[in-house]
Amino acid sequence: MLKLFYHQWLAARRSLYWQKSVFLNILLGIVGIYILLNFVVIGYYADELIQSVYPVSDTINHFTGLLLFYLIFDFFARFMMQKFPSLIIQPYLTLPIKKQKLIHYPILKSMLGLFNLLGLCLVIPFFIKAVVPSYGFAFSTVWLFSVLALIFSSNFIAFTVKKKFSSNPVFIISFVLFLGVVLYVNFGEVYNLSSRFSAVLLFISGKYYGIFFPILLLVVSYFTAYRTLMNNHRLDDKAEPSLKRTSGATFLDYYGETAGILLVELKMIVRNKRPKSALLYGLLMIPYGFLLYSFNSDDYLLQMFIGFLIISALAMPYGQFVFSWQSSCFDGLMAHNVNLHRYVKSKFFVFSVLAVVSYILSLPFVIKNEQMLTIHPAMLLYTIGISSKLILFFGCFKSKPISLGKNQMFNHEGVSFVDFLIILPVLGLPALLYAGFVVFDITGYFIYGLGIIGINGIVLNRFMLSYIVKLLIRRKYKIGMGFRSK
């Protein structure tokens, strides 16, 4: 098994992608380390954050209860985004290696995934700072192993469920409805699920035999994932991502043929002056938006606007010229018969990643303003689920070319009346929602409603992108004609 890990490391280190894109890989590594450090800081100061938001006496009990919702959201995020590691299986078939060992490899390697590392960075600092001094080593050790077993079990369960229901949108909608019911039951004071979960986990931690229950769940979930992969892998299955790999050894391989278009998009941003300067100016808007929070903390509509300003600080400058970035080579893209669905999907992916980066950069500000704990996640969901689709939709009606070598400042090249029209639906929809909440006198739930709309947009992502692709197919000749008229 160790040789398989070593072979994959050699393949990654020797790949052409690593040698040609060292800067991009280093940049992604820095961003990943930054994300992990943010979770470490949140975990270390979790007891103080809980005391400031919920003035309770037992922060450990409350933190353990909140882990229930972390696990639920963690499972949903894994189901939507996590891809299991791949392995080139053909070269090993002629060697005396058992097929079971090849199946175990991607499952074991998934334990080193980002979501598991985030859980470790969140729980271990809290364990060291708060749990051990309060409950002692024996209780704390069982508590830690129980929580980590639940996090890793979520990893294996998400894989199993995704294998069986990834192509069924009914399951996704049902899970979103289930999540809404759980939140309503708990926070609507119908039944306190978080306190019950905390009581069970603390009870297990207080017994010397308690650690066997989460370990049993971990073992069962692992072998369920193993059995699922064993029963479903096929060497000639083009859609099977678990036992094959595309060219190169990079995280982009997991997105199939979309990876090539996405890589071109990232290189366009890194190598050209205008997209880099646009993102730099957007980056400066994040601390500016944070300063605006100090002026008014009670107006929900203003909070929504400031949250949108921060979360979309990087995504909107990119989305403003979403198709115009390729104005100089748009005819070449069409002549090469590029799959427009993958082309639009890569645009959506870049837009979403930039929004997530803005959200991550705003995480340290939570220490100064607790309202960001609800505002920014809701705005992130809305930006990815709704704003991204509106940007792509209106981008189909823009046909003004731009020069990538010019600076962004005081440069109005490519700007059209459509850029001003985009603001109306992007900010108008939340404003209408807020007006409806005002009528029913429930403005306190406005941010949650905005987040639910964003989740619905994410669930309907494939349908909405398909409509945009059809619109782009109808408009591509007019767009190309506009790009040629410089």
From TrEMBL:
Signal found in the keyword field: no
Keywords, ordered alphabetically: Membrane, Transmembrane, Transmembrane helix
Transmembrane residue ranges: 21-45, 60-81, 102-128, 134-158, 170-188, 208-226, 278-295, 301-325, 346-367, 379-397, 417-440, 446-469
Keyword match Membrane: yes
Organism superkingdom: Bacteria
InterPro entries, per the entry: DUF5687 (IPR043742)
Protein name, per record: ABC-2 type transport system permease protein
Lineage, opening ranks: Bacteria, Pseudomonadati, Bacteroidota, Bacteroidia, Marinilabiliales
